[in-house]
Amino acid sequence: MLNNRNIEIAPSILSANFACLGDQIEAVERGGAGILHVDVMDGHFVPNITVGLPVVKSLSKFTRLPIDAHLMISDPGTYAAQFVEAGAQMVSVHVEADAHLHRTVMSIKAAGAQAGVVLNPSTPVVAVEEALQFVDYVLVMSVNPGFGGQKFIAQTLDKVKRLRQMILERQLHVRIEIDGGVDRSNIESVVAAGAEIIVAGSAIFDKPDAEAAVKELRNATVQWV
Ligand code: DX5
Ligand code: ZN
Question: What are phi and psi of 187, to 5 degrees?
């Protein structure tokens, strides 16, 4: 049941060298990345500030990979559709940041992108139960959002399994994305648990050869494809 899935590696540019971002993106494209994960942080919802709309706009013209904008911002409903207009094909918003999740998800879809909802490590799976029927994917955080290079929280594996079960029971086509602390040592277990979109930042860009690092992660998942 877990075989024949479309497993994709989504490099997170948070750990990339921004002084040569184009080169770094070309490297992960050559490595076989399927998606480009862009972490948007506002210094309010999370204690860090990264990049926003202008960067997504430039990247969308540069790369052939679909851009997955992970919005770690307060009031995401105000900005979500703007990220689609800037060129993101996937936009996700945190359940914890949005009291009007349905409205925000609909605004992302109406603008023409896939919509995702995100769960922090301490937010229970049940928090997305109602949203499952109108989202394209659920992003399960396996670290507390805000920084790259953190340690994978092991309990996340069971959480992904329970979420997958919830999706299967409802016969929905909702993909599970996982983000934080994923590397060669645990990628097989996250895929086995049910994740299909695998975000990795430091495991790719902290390596001397980002292309080879993507290939290595992809090779580790071939048994599931
Ligand atoms: C954390 C971000 C992640 C992060 C992943 O808040 O959402 O995308 O960049 O980086 P690693 O893979 O190093 O944990
Ligand atoms: Zn992310």
Answer: -60, -35
Query: Is ligand 1 within 6 A of the CB of residue 120?
Result: no
Cβ–ligand 1 contact at 66 (below 6 Å) = no
Ligand 2 is an ion; its neighbours by CB within 5 Å are 39, 70, 179
Point out which residues pair with 112 in neighbouring strands: none
30, 185, 180, 35: CA torsion to nearest 10: 20
Q: What size, in residues, is the chain?
A: 225
CB within 8 Å of 189: residues ≥ 6 apart: 157
Contacts of 108 (CB under 8 A, 6+ apart): 80, 81, 84, 91, 93, 114, 115
Task: Specify the pTM.
Answer: 0.97
Distance (Å) from CA 149 to ligand 1 centroid: 7
**pLDDT tens figures, 106-122:** 999 999 999 999 999 99
Q: Hunting for tokens 């109108």 — which residue is that?
A: 134
- pLDDT of residue 137 exceeding 80: yes
C-alpha span between 206 and 215 (Å, rounded): 15
Q: What is the bridge-based pairing of β-strands 90-94 and 114-119?
A: parallel
Q: In this predicted structure, what is the pLDDT of residue 1?
A: 52
Domains of the chain listed by start with CATH number = 8-224 (3.20.20.70)
From the CB of 180, is ligand 1 less than 6 Å away?
yes
Report helix, strand or coil for 198: strand
User: Which residues lie closer than 8 Å to 96 by C-beta, 6 or more apart?
Assistant: 45, 120, 123
Q: Tell me what pLDDT residue 5 has.
A: 85
